[in-house]
Each structure stands twice: as structure tokens, then as C-alpha cells.
Amino acid sequence: MKIDELQRVAEYIVSAQKGILAADESNPTIRKRFDSIAVESTEENRRRYREILFTTDGIERYISGVILYDETLRQSASDGTPFAKLLWDRGIMPGIKVDKGSKALALHPGNKVTEGLDGLRDQLAEYKQLGAKFAKWRAVMEINEYDVPSPYAIRANAHALARYAALCQEAGIVPIVEPEILMDGAHDMERCENVTSRMLESVFDELDAHGVLIEGALLKPNMVIPGMKCPHQASPEQIAEATLRCLRRHVPAALPGIVFLSGGQSAEDATQNLNAMNAMNVVNAMGEHPWQLSFSYGRALQAPVLATWKGQEHNVAAAQRTFFKRCQLNGLAREGIYSRVMENS
Ligand code: 5MM
Question: What is the pTM of this model?
Fold first, then answer.
């Protein structure tokens, strides 16, 4: 394991103003996104859409890494340049989603566990050859009003995340560890904080037990946020306070960075909530945050781009302007200097 290299890549990904574009939608997910703008999900349309994102002028100032899907890592731009090379040449690290999605956890009704460990060692070796510098595995858990997620589901998902992370580091690839507590449902913020705490505690226990080098990994968690159907929604400051409290209790200071997922928040909310956390740096009574707080947004970076593009070539320039602006605003949120009025400038 090349410790220095892992640490260098992890630190680069969370360098000042920068974050990750999550463009690793599996084919069923991108089909849903394309359906919403009446675009057929053909291999060429998926390639063209990703090319529009990756060739947007100036994004390398705010985007340090892109998570790709297996198909995309094997695709090229219109001029024949493989996407991984195109990104690398712009100073953007290519990454790869390696999990195979979540399946029902046997004997635990309502709970799921993410699959994909079988054959992962060989797969990582191939992805490394194709240019991947980092990888991502998402454990996704719903909250219901009873006992979901169960303690065992939390443990099983944390264990899988740690086995994946260890295999990545063995292959010289930085693991992004993504335990996502979904914001679907009517649960309140306290419940989200409680479940997120249990999950993070279990994840770092397992990472430690598996010998994963914390300095050479990144965490991609949900923010602590009330469920979408909860009647009591929270302000960005309340979300920031609860999220930071939860992270400080469970995430080692040795971790270089935390790259939040957007999880269904609007593009503006995801930017504002990240901004609120970074604005609490230093001025917060607890002192400076021990890790970089960044983004690894899928929907919050792409939803406005898809709505502008609509599959039409004559909309490409406008779609790229929209994408650049979202990257720039999240770059400002990295520094805690974003303000909602900038949305209209
Ligand atoms: C881009 O969406 C990713 C892949 O999802 P599927 O496996 O369902 O196709 C997803 O893992 C994504 O990287 C993260 O959840 C963050 O995306 P959001 O939209 O929550 O920021």
C-alpha cells in the first residue's frame, strides 16, 4: 500500500474551493433522470451528456474529482480522448463507483445491505489500469418509525464499507466511504442525528478493525436533516450545528475530508447548508474544523444542468454555463462565503 500516494490523492480531492461531481448514476438511475427531460437513455446520449459536463470550461477551479460509472470510465469524448484522460489532463481525478447497489437484508424486513464485494479485488486492478484514482461505495439506509435501520443492518453495511475500503487501499485507490441515511420519510432531525451517529460509530469501528488508513480515505455522509415529510423543517444553521456535532463525536481528526452527498436537497439548499458549516469554521466556539468540509453532489450539481440541456444541442452552451455556476457557488460554500443572493447574479 503506497501510503503517501493515498494521502496525497485524498488531500488533493478536498483542496481549497474544490469538491466532487458525482456522475456515477447507474443505467437505471440515469434513465430516470433522462425520462424527466424526455431524452432516451441510449449509450450515445449518456456519453454525450457526460461529455457536456466534463468539457465545461473552468470547472477544474472547483471540481477536483468526478465519480464515474463503469460504462462512462470506458467511454471517450467526441475527439476520441478517453474520459479518464480528459479529466486527468484538466487536473480532475477520475473515480469509479464499485458497489452493485443495495438488496434486501435476509431476515431483516425493511433493511438493505449493499452488495459488490465478490470479485472486487480484480475489478479494482482493472479500474486502476483504466485510470481510476479513487472509488466509491454507497451503503444506503432508510429510516422508518419503527426499528429501521436495525442495529444489525448498520453493522452489516459498516462491515461491507470497511472491506471495500481495505481492498481499495490494497490496490492503491483512495476509498470514499458513503454511509447514506436517506432523507425520505417523516422522521425529525433528532432521529436522523441518532441514526447517523450509530452508523458513523460503526463505520469507524469497522475501518479500524480492517486496518484502513484513515489519512488515505474520505467520508461521504448525509447531512443531519429532518425527513422531507417532517412538518418541522430546519434552518441551515440548525442543520450545520447538528451535523457538525454528530461528525465531531464520531469522525477521527486524521481524516482529510468529508464530502457530503446532497441526497435530494435542492441545489440551492445543498449549497447553503454546506456554506453554513464552513462559515462556522474558526468562529465556532469548538475551534477550527479538523477536516475539510466539501461536496460530492450528484443531483444538486446536475438537476439544473439537465433542465437546461433537455437533450438539445442548441442548449449545450447554456447547460455548461449553468453547470459552471453551480460548481462556482459550491466552491464559495467551501469557504463559507456563499450567499443566496448570488443565485440570481
Ligand atoms: C449520482 O448518483 C449516484 C449513483 O446512484 P445509483 O447507484 O442509484 O445509480 C449516487 O451514489 C451518488 O453518488 C450519491 O448518492 C450522491 O448523489 P446525490 O444526488 O445524493 O448528491
Answer: 0.97
